[in-house]
Amino acid sequence: MRTCLCDLIRPVTPRTEVLILQHPEEVNQAKGSATLLALSLARCTVRVGERFDPLTLDADLHADGRCPVLLYPASPHEPAPPAPPDLPPDRLRLVVLDATWRKSRKLLHCNPGLQALPRLALTSVPPSRYAALRKAQVPAIQRSTLEATCGALVQLEPGLVASCGCLLAAFDVFVQRGQAHNATPTITEET
To answer: What residue segments make up the domains of the chain, in order of their start?
Structure first.
């Protein structure tokens, strides 16, 4: 079955820019949420890869003089990165890793430029809307790329609660469609 996302796109215009670094195995995942997220966010760039050229990655991270902040929980197994800067959202670039939990750790490990970034961890983590489509290894903290990014944007810009809420409601429909098609719809972009 083919599923068009056009009716689910909900325009969200954050002041924070979003850079999604997508693992190649996520590109054609029918249950992946990054496509819907990227189509809905006004300031969003997607780069696909596992090992990014350090100079290109640095340019993407710091384009337009923005300060990159990695959306990723702190880990007891590695040194704590610097705290996120206290900057207005229009100076920030939220860096999001779109991958499975295991592959996100590999993205982090393969790209030293990401390891040095200040990290933003979600402070309020509601139950995942995505659970019906995938089995998370750590369901208490793992969220879809869309859920995590919406949570982070609301943390950075509380004024986005309503627009991110509309996008999350559209994501609920996306999940329902995935369940109806046994989580195997093919995503097409017809914008």
So the answer is: 2-186
